[in-house]
Specification:
Helices cover 9% and strands 60% of the residues. It is mainly beta and 182 residues long. The chain starts with a helix and ends in a 13-residue tail after the last strand.
Length: 182
């Protein structure tokens, strides 16, 4: 099966690009379940190479009749003040990989609240979803979607609220645009 070979090779390699580095260890897959530990380093600004986000996690992998289900526990090891506030508690990502290698992932953030003397901010749990497939031994991202159910900013002059905000794209996710779709 394609997904079996792909899963084994995925967890056996370390991945590195200019902006992302992922290292896997302790991959152990039995007949129906397994796990793997990983560490990731993300650089968002090439002009600030020391401003990185470092994450560690464990993937709990379960095999079923329709593919794999992977639950990833994600912990912040290092990051700037914004990430430290958003990632106070571990995150959980859900990933499903079907037998053809199509990946469906989702990540839900905790509620973000900031109360300063002059301004109060609240962003309800955001949901990030991504669909991808394997192409030429690379993961090609097909779709990305960010859902923000409610965001509120208040100060002594007023109150701003946005509800049901969604950003979705199929373009520019793989460092190139599809011909004829820009």
């Amino acid at each position: 099966m394609y997904a079996d070979k792909s899963l084994n090779s995925y967890y056996q390699q370390n991945q590195k690009t200019n902006l992302v580095s992922i290292q896997y260890k302790n991959f152990n897959m039995g007949a129906m379940q397994g796990s793997a530990d990983w560490a990731a380093q993300l650089s968002f600004d090439p002009c600030k190479p020391k401003d990185v986000l470092m994450l560690t996690g464990t993937d709990e992998i379960k095999r079923s009749w329709n593919g794999y289900h992977i639950e990833s526990k994600i912990n912040l090891q290092q990051g700037n003040e914004v990430f430290q506030k958003i990632l106070k508690q571990p995150l959980t990502a859900q990933t499903k990989i079907d037998w053809l290698g199509v990946v469906h992932s989702s990540l839900t953030t905790p509620v973000f609240e900031k109360n300063d003397a002059d301004i109060q901010t609240r962003i309800d749990s955001m949901i990030f979803k991504m669909d991808a497939k394997s192409k030429d031994n690379q993961l090609e991202i097909l779709n990305a979607k960010l859902q923000i159910p409610n965001m509120t900013v208040s100060d002594k002059l007023g109150h701003v609220q946005m509800r049901e905000v969604e950003f979705e794209t199929t373009q520019g996710l793989n460092s190139s645009f599809d011909a004829g779709k820009t």
